[in-house]
Design a protein that fits this description.
alpha/beta, Rossmann fold, elongated, 10 strands
Length: 554
C-alpha cells in the first residue's frame, strides 16, 4: 500500500505524518489506561470491597483521560490539517515547477485536461491519503502488538487467539487491493477522458452551436459519462465489498476472542478483572484495522493519483536547460542547416539556412502548415532542433540558459493570453516595476488610450481571458505588454490574423517603429502585412524557397 515514490510526494509533511501517528498511538494508550481503570472499579463493585476514595480516584482518572483524549483529538485534527495544507501546496508546487521545466512544447503536444485533473482532484486524493490513511496505517501496525503484549501478561492463550487473526485481515486487504487498483485505474482514466471532453465542449460551445452539433457532442459525452459511471459503480462495489469483508473479519474475530475469554473465565482460569480487561481489549484490538479498512479506498485512490502525478513528474523534458552563463555578441539569428519534425511522419523544417540580422525587420510568409510557426518555436527552444543549430549573437541557443534566452526573445501570437485582472496587472507581466506613466505611454502607443481614459484608468478590469475587451483590444494589449518587456528580438506570429482594419493598422505601425532597435520577425500568410519588411522569406513545405529584399519607405 505504501511505496517510496508515493511517500516522497509528502515532502515536508512526512514529519507531521509521524506526529499524527504518535498522537493516534497515545490515544490508544489512553484507552488502555481507561480499560484498566474500568476493570478495576467494576471488580471493586462486584466483590463489594470498593471504598469512597477509590470512586473518587476513578472519577479523577476518568476525567483526566477524557481531557487527554480531547486534547489528543484536537492535536490529531490539527496535524491532519497541517499535513493536508503542506501536501496540497507541495505537490501542486512540484507540478507547476515541472510544467515550467517541460515548457510550452509539452502542453501543446499533450494537452492540459489530464494535467488539470492531476493538479486538482489528484492532489485532493493525495491530501486524504497522507492526512488520514498513512497515519492510520502506521498506527494499525503498532497498537495491536502493544495490546497483544499487554494481554499476554493476563492470559497467553486468549492473546494467541487474537494474534492468529492478525495476518488474515491484512491478507484480505492485499487480495482486495488487486481488484481495487484495477477499478481505481479505470476510474481515473475515465475521469481524465471525460474531463478532457467536457473542457473541449465548453471551450468550443460557440462553434458547436454555429454548426448545430452541440446535441451530437452532448450525446457522445453522455456515452462517455455512462462509461465513467460504470467505472464509478465498480469502484463503489469494490469499496462496499472491502468494508463488508473487513467488518466480517473484525467483528468475527473479536467475537471469537470474547468467546475464548468468557470460556476461560467460567472455567476459572482467569480472574474477573483480567476477563474485563481482555474483553475490552479484544474489541479495541481490531478497531484500528477496521478503521484502516474504512480508509482503504482512500488509500488506493491516493496511490493511483500518486502514480499518475509521479509519472508526470518523471517526464523528461524534451528541452533541457544548459545552466551555462554565456555572453552573446549582438542579436543576429542564424539558422545553420536546421531540420525539425514533431513526429516521424512529416519533416516540418528541412535544411534551413538563413541569417536574420540585428535591427532589421523580416517577413516570413507561406501557406498554413509550411513551418513558419515551427521556426519561431525553435528560436525560443520550445522544441529542440533535430539537425543543425540555431545561433543568437554567435552562440548556439542550446548553450544559452532558457531564462536568459527568453529574456532576449519575445513571442506575440494571435492567441496570446490575457489574464483576469486589470489592464495594469497584464502590463506588469511584461515589466513588474513598470510605472503608471510607462504603462500609459505604451497604451497610447498601441492605441488603447480610450480604455484607460476612464475613472478606473489602468485598474480597469479586462474580465476572464480579456472577455471585456474586443479582439483587437486584446491583441493590442498583448503587444503593449510585449513592448514593456523590452526584448532584443521580437517574433510576431499571425498577430493581425483576427483583428479589425483599425487595429491591424495600429499594430502594423507599432511593429515597424521597432526598425533599427530590435530584430523583428513577422510571421504571416498574408504578404500585405509584411510589405514594409527589409526582407521577405517564403517557406514552402519546410524549406526556404524564396527571399525578396524590399525597398523600405520611411
Amino acid at each position: 500500500m505504501l511505496n517510496k515514490k508515493s511517500l516522497q510526494l509528502a515532502g515536508e509533511a512526512r514529519r507531521w505524518i509521524i506526529f499524527s501517528a504518535v498522537v493516534l498511538f497515545l490515544k490508544g494508550l489512553v484507552y488502555v489506561v481507561q480499560v484498566f481503570a474500568v476493570a478495576w472499579i467494576l471488580d471493586g463493585f462486584v466483590f463489594a470491597d470498593i471504598e469512597v476514595a477509590q470512586i473518587v480516584i476513578f472519577a479523577g482518572v476518568t476525567a483526566g483521560l477524557i481531557c487527554a483524549k480531547f486534547g489528543l483529538s484536537l492535536l490529531e485534527a490539527r496535524f491532519s490539517f497541517k499535513i493536508s495544507a503542506i501536501v496540497k501546496t507541495s505537490v501542486r508546487s512540484k507540478i507547476f515547477t515541472k510544467v515550467k521545466q517541460l515548457g510550452p512544447g509539452y502542453t501543446e503536444s499533450s494537452g492540459t485536461a489530464a494535467l488539470v485533473t492531476n493538479a486538482v482532484d489528484g492532489v485532493e486524493s493525495m491530501e486524504v491519503f497522507f492526512g488520514r490513511f498513512v497515519p492510520q496505517f502506521f498506527y494499525s501496525l503498532i497498537i495491536p502488538l502493544v495490546l497483544l503484549a499487554i494481554g499476554s501478561f493476563i492470559n497467553p492463550v486468549c492473546s494467541a487467539v487474537l494474534l492468529a487473526a492478525v495476518p488474515i485481515i491484512p491478507l484480505s486487504m492485499v487480495f482486495i487491493s488487486k481488484w481495487a487498483k484495477r477499478s481505481m485505474g479505470n476510474f481515473w482514466d475515465g475521469y481524465q477522458d471525460l474531463s478532457a471532453t467536457f473542457l473541449d465542449n465548453l471551450q468550443g460551445m460557440v462553434t458547436l452551436k454555429l454548426f448545430n452539433k452541440s446535441e451530437k457532442r452532448l450525446q457522445e459525452m453522455e456515452a462517455q459519462a455512462w462509461g465513467f459511471r460504470n467505472s464509478t459503480m465498480n469502484l463503489l462495489k469494490m469499496q462496499l465489498t472491502s468494508i463488508t469483508v473487513m467488518d466480517t473479519l473484525v467483528y468475527g474475530f473479536a467475537g471469537l476472542g470474547i468467546g475464548v475469554v468468557l470460556l476461560y473465565f467460567f472455567l476459572g482460569k482467569i480472574s474477573f478483572f483480567g476477563a474485563i480487561v481482555l474483553l475490552l481489549l479484544s474489541v479495541e484490538f481490531f478497531l484500528p484495522l477496521r478503521k484502516l479498512g474504512s480508509y482503504f479506498h482512500a488509500g488506493v485512490n491516493g496511490i493511483q493519483a500518486g502514480k499518475k502525478i509521479n509519472a508526470f513528474l518523471e517526464t523528461e523534458p524534451s528541452v533541457k536547460d544548459c545552466g551555462k552563463v554565456v555572453a552573446s555578441q549582438g542579436f543576429d539569428i542564424v539558422f545553420d542547416n536546421v531540420s525539425f519534425s514533431y513526429n516521424r511522419e512529416k519533416e516540418n523544417l528541412r535544411n534551413v539556412n538563413f541569417c536574420f540580422e540585428q535591427g532589421k525587420i523580416y517577413g516570413i510568409v507561406g501557406e498554413s502548415g509550411c513551418g513558419k510557426t515551427s521556426l519561431a518555436h525553435l528560436i525560443l527552444r520550445f522544441f529542440e532542433v533535430k539537425k543543425g543549430e540555431i545561433r543568437l549573437g554567435g552562440c548556439n541557443i542550446a548553450d544559452i540558459p532558457l531564462n536568459l534566452l527568453r529574456q532576449r526573445v519575445n513571442l506575440v501570437t494571435n492567441s496570446s493570453a490575457i489574464f483576469s485582472g486589470s489592464i495594469a496587472d497584464n502590463l506588469r507581466l511584461g515589466k513588474a516595476d513598470a510605472s503608471s506613466q510607462q504603462m500609459v505611454d505604451v497604451c497610447n502607443k498601441v492605441g488603447l488610450f480610450h480604455l484607460i481614459d476612464t475613472p478606473d484608468g489602468l485598474e480597469k478590469s479586462v474580465g476572464e481571458a480579456g472577455a471585456m475587451l474586443s479582439g483587437g483590444e486584446r491583441q493590442r494589449l498583448a503587444l503593449a505588454r510585449a513592448l514593456l518587456y523590452d526584448a532584443q528580438v521580437y517574433i510576431f506570429d499571425e498577430i493581425t490574423g483576427s483583428v479589425d482594419a483599425e487595429s491591424e493598422k495600429i499594430i502594423k505601425e507599432t511593429i515597424y517603429s521597432l526598425r533599427g532597435e530590435k530584430t523583428v520577425l513577422i510571421i504571416s500568410h498574408r504578404k500585405a502585412i509584411v510589405e514594409g519588411a527589409d526582407d521577405i522569406v517564403t517557406i514552402k513545405n519546410g524549406e526556404i524557397v524564396g527571399q525578396q529584399e524590399v525597398c523600405c519607405v520611411g
